[in-house]
Design brief:
By secondary structure, the protein is an alpha/beta fold. The protein has one domain: Response regulator (Rossmann fold). The protein is built from six helices and five strands, in the order H-E-H-E-H-E-H-E-H-E-H. The protein has a five-stranded parallel beta sheet, sandwiched between helices.
Length: 133
């Protein structure tokens, strides 16, 4: 049963730091509230430059990365993360309103979700990345 899946995934995510890189502030707010509701430490970056600063400073466990950012392509951020010794192990779940699965995976993302997505699907992708991590 699908509703039974969420608590299992949430247990794996509690205490993890998730950086939400999303320029749509309404969506970012929803994601942050949902993460925090389940005991996940969540922070937000509204654009690529802010994301890179937070990645270097805080070293999140997971990045939820919007591909279409106003100042740079999210795939540039993924390549930045993978090319740096101190950040290359951070898990990245790319998100986009169009199908960018192949390019996301080719550029170092661990998983891809096409918007709109459902919360259980998002949590499942994050938990799957942590298991493979």
């Amino acid at each position: 049963m699908e509703s039974d899946r969420v608590p299992t995934f949430v247990e794996k995510l509690k205490g993890k730091h998730v950086l939400v890189v999303e320029d749509n502030l309404a969506l970012a707010d929803i994601l942050l509230r949902l993460m925090r509701h389940y005991g996940i430490r969540a922070t937000h970056a509204k654009d690529g430059n802010e994301a890179i600063k937070q990645i270097e400073k805080e070293g999140p466990d997971i990045i939820l990365l919007d591909i279409g950012l106003p100042d740079m392509n999210g795939l540039e951020i993924a390549r930045f993360v993978r090319q740096n010794e101190s950040t290359k192990s951070i898990l990245i779940v790319a998100m986009s309103g169009f199908d960018a699965r192949e390019s996301s995976l080719q550029n170092g993302c661990n998983a891809f979700l096409q918007k709109p997505f459902r919360l259980p699907d998002l949590l499942a992708q994050i938990a799957k990345c942590l298991e493979q991590g």
